[in-house]
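Hi,

I'm pasting everything inline rather than attaching a file, because the server keeps stripping attachments. The sequence lines come first, and each chain or strand is labelled.
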Amino acid sequence: MTPRNQRMVAIFAVIIGVSLSVSLVLKALEENINHFYSPSDVVAGMPTPDKEFRLGGLVEEGSFIRTAGDLTANFIVTDLKTNVNVQYTGVLPDLFQEGQGMVARGKLSSDGIFIASEVLAKHDENYMSPEVKKILEEAGHPVDSPLPTKAYTD
Amino acid sequence: MIPEIGQLCLVIALCFALVQFILPMVGFWKKNIILGEVAKPSAHAQVLFLLLAFICLTVSFLADDFSVLYVANNSNTALPTPFKVAAVWGAHEGSLLLWSFILAIWSSAVAVFSKSLPREIVSLVLAVMGAIAIGFMLFILLTSNPFERLYPIPIDGGDLNPLLQDFALIIHPPMLYVGYVGFSVAFAFAVAAMMTGNLDQKWARWTRPWTTTAWLFLTLGIALGSWWAYYELGWGGWWFWDPVENAAFMPWLAGTALIHSLAVTEKRGLFKSSTLLLAIGAFSLSLLGTFLVRSGVLVSVHAFASDPARGLFILVFLALVIGVSLSLYAWRAPTLISNVGFKFFSRETFILINNLLLVIATAVILLGTLGPLVFTALDLGTISVGPQYFEIVFLLPMIPLVLMVGLGMHVSWRSMQPNSLLRRLYLPALLSIIVGILAPWWFFGASSFLTAIGIIVGVWTILSALLDPIRRVFGKINRISRSAVAMQVAHLGLGMVVLGITVTSAFSIETDVGLKPGQSSTIKGYNFRFEGIRETFGPNYQATQGVFAVSKNGEDYTEMRPEKRIYRVRTNPMTEAAIEANWGRDLFIALGEPLGDGAWSLRLQYKPLIRFIWLGCLVMALAGLLSISDPRYRKS
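And the predicted assembly:
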């Protein structure tokens, strides 16, 4: 091969390599994007069937049911407008409580129950995830400052 | 009074930073070297006044001065004293003060340890660092003042977040910041080189020890953060591809590439452009990390307060730093052409490919980290990128990279005959393939393609790193230079990390169970019998403690006591996992919640070789230490 041809081959190899890897990265990205939905979004049918997504909202007061000795828990997540039934098997995070915000990752089952594979922990008892806060605001229930207001003057 | 003194000190330090920045720059402009001479004393004065400011804040914490807003928010009379000190950098305002303080220490260190450097270069480097210091101190004074007073004065404080009341968290932020901020030295050297147009092998030799020092602290900081997440936060996970972790990991990857690029620039006078770009990149990613972590755009344990003004300030600052340095680069880079060549099969090529792959890995992580933010900013909905994305796109460049590390270590500069390399390396290569295929079956009775690849690559790197030391022991080669030893030790650490990650990812056992007292559960030959729970107390918390009798193959082995703590001020429960560790594996129990009838939910885990991950990082940091101790750097 002449040097000129060599260079052409090298350039083509680089172009093919780069486009292959870019498409691979974009495919991986597309497959692993989890959308975030509120209970109202879920009821409106926004999640794609069989695709994992994240559900956020408040755990409805008095909705938490767990048979004694059993790890499977059932509860209702609400945006104070619409409710979604959630089922989770496993150890719940420390700050999981009725009346508190939570975010869970999982899929919808055929009968409309959200099967959570992971329930995300918050990091502070007063802290509410901005996503959950936004959902409640959109549903017409603005939440006060999530921070310990007692010491914040401005 | 003390907080006001602290604030005054901060303002004085800012004034010195202004002097440190403006006068040397004017001096450079006017070709007046005397003006540059003020940089060194200004740097020392700056560090002195920042130290005083830092002490003032610490004293406020120790004295429980809740009239200071920041103290009231992050401390409490019952908080143990070591944590009161750690609380100084436990939240946003104080951690920025620490940032500035560490930057001043670095500047001062440059001023002290640069006796052999041309005065013009030193004053320019210090001027650039002064400019960065101005940005950060303005940021503190305008948006995040830790000395702000509070009225009425609360009787007691809001306490430090219990998650942060932990030994690793006392030292994790300082380590990480020393690393982050340390890249500012490499950045300043790069800017100085571009301004003077003087970028030779001597320049690379000055820059290398500073960069290596920053890198070694960043390595330690990341390892500490991962270790902390493992036992305190993550219920046994050690890396989550959380944006905050990525924020520290990206500068590390860029910094690693920079170290390699600098080595080529020093030894061969090549790769000047990529060295400059990587120096700019590593520091910009450090700033981006600070922005991501501290602006509150991310949901995370690190970002309690979200304030758009802060985010905007850092974003503008970031844009300025990147904009100015890249413009300077675009203007100056064409003058930096080197006219030495190298053959395809040479160490230069290997390092080039290594850096390319590191940059690709950084770019894909950046994409996954910033993608969701862009998505939200464009109002396209809220998304998150799952950890699988990062696992896939990170592994793709990493597998070939680590494979080549074992080769590249033994390739000589300029050119080499592939045959002589093959003769030297076929034995370790063969050995690692055998181990990679057989060991998983031998130890765990299972394997997979990816697991075998991971173990082969890990063992290969370790053997390749040990090859020369072994040959030295048998008298086959003579003395190995300090820098070569450091390089081998660093790659040994890398091999350990790869091995640890592979084995722990492939063979960890994790189960959630519900147990009543007297019941037991068995994983991997270890039987965990739940004896019951009892109540205990700590200085500022009370705890429910689960007692577990662990037996191995029917014989009593140990007792483990995981806790569920309730801190008195911030009343959220905290899980303190019980961990039984040795070289080969960790046993891990975390107490969940009561399930009724005396039963508790529990997470039991068996984590083989997980210690290798952090141990490998320690070995890498040790290599950094070896490298900077090279007497070559102290010759003028």
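The two ends of chain B are 48 Å apart (CA to CA).

If the labels don't parse on your end, tell me and I'll reformat.
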